Amino acid sequence: MSDSAFDNAGFSTKAIHAGYDPDPQTGAVNVPIYTSSTFMQDGVGGMRNGYEYARTGNPTRAALEANIAAIEAGQFGRAFSSGMAATDCTLRTVLRPGDHLVIPNDAYGGTFRLIDKVFKHWGIEHSVAAVSDPDAVRAAMRPNTKLVWVETPTNPLLNIGDIAALADIAHESGAKLVVDNTFASPYLQQPITLGADIVLHSTTKYLGGHSDVVGGALVTNDEELHAGFGFLQNGAGAVPGPMDCYLTLRGIKTLAIRMERHSDNAEKIADFLVGHSAVSQVIYPGLESHPGHKVAEKQMRRFGGMLSVRLHGGADAARELCAGTKVFTLAESLGGVESLIEHPAAMTHASTEGSELEVPADLVRLSVGIEDIEDLLADLEQALG
Ligand code: PLP
After folding, report:
1. pTM of the predicted model as reported, rounded to 2 decimal places
2. Architecture of domain 3-252 in CATH?
């Protein structure tokens, strides 16, 4: 069945089927892992279905790219060897020396590091603004602003940006809006339908879903951006291998049911932590007390599996909690079936120390997995003491 046959299909139908038709020769229902680095030509320049060399294009990768585009409600997808490679490709495609971008005051530390430690030296300026405050983003725009970078929910403080409002602000100034949709996943939120020009993923997280593959992706409806991303895939070469593409596709098939369970578990953990005497603040967009709750409700299907807490006992208590859990594994990353716990100030966000993006030392981030909720609650209870 062609991809357009799934245009009106539900989310999981697209996630399971879009991007690949059963192989006509064998009927294989899963896309083969095409391990060929090169493709035979029928006479010089006579490529079959455009395949020439696997950095430029590979059928397993093409299936993943079409699939991610479909589940993000976009036209074009590109897959990369990591989320950071997708970030790098976006920055180099959209920006030129002398250009300016607006970045969130809370964002993945690696994104900030790349912009602040690498792109700054190539003449790219940036300003920091809270994505939860559209007026602050508007005030940060300059005549040379070409890109507005948004995470929502942000990593690790789970701030919520109103994607439609931010798209208007970017477009009024002729800038593009990129939304890093890693925390929400396309099951919970589809930024292109809300006006974003580019959606970015670390597919390492919820799309892969099993903490067994590193990857990234970009989705857009803009043909020029799509061509630019393809140029850099080939020109710079940060592409995923076919096995990684296959694993990511396999993960995506169960995204919807996983996100439902992640959200169920996180909601229950948020309620439990709100009542705990060791906890000074629970940050979860599903709580009515969260300042972004209303916007999240408007643009997200549910509130996801990421949750952060601040502790009365400060940095020491945060480190102790991270060291004290048994079901929650102390590790970086997020979005897998297993629950993870981490201390952002010392781990994922160490690169933000001393900057406007510095995170509080009493903060602990939880990636709530899909284990049995009773076990997760008991684990947190014993670790909090
Ligand atoms: N964006 C967000 C929100 C992330 O959390 C991460 C990684 O943690 C990235 C981008 C980078 O992705 P990767 O680790 O796949 O390079």
Report:
1. 0.97
2. 3-Layer(aba) Sandwich (3.40)
